[in-house]
Amino acid sequence: MSNMKLMICLINYDIEQNKLRTALAKRLQYFGFSRIQKSLFVGSIAPNNLRKLKVELKKMPWQENDKCMITIASKTAIENTFVINKSIKKELKSIANSPRVIIY
Questions:
Q1: Count of CB atoms within 10 A of residue 49's CB?
Q2: From CA 64, how far away is CA 62, in angstroms rounded?
Q3: Domains (ranges, CATH) in the chain?
Q4: Are 10 and 91 contacting, i.e. CB atoms less than 8 angstroms apart?
């Protein structure tokens, strides 16, 4: 296993255009994020990959009303998240308990 440390990120968005929304979802999945709601992804990512993702996001054809937010979450925040869905709770717990996750 690599010694590279990871950050837990939640990425949510509100995008009107289907094409852009689909492109964003595919990029997030490429970077290892899992969709937990229609417009919410969660995952762990290395700092250098997060920088790459942000560069890619800035280049996307955003419209004036489109929104995208990346939140870096602590292990404690993820562990204390109230969830009514066993599979999502299990996924969040798995991400939070990764030995490679660091808190920023």
A1: 15
A2: 7
A3: 7-85 (3.30.70.240)
A4: no
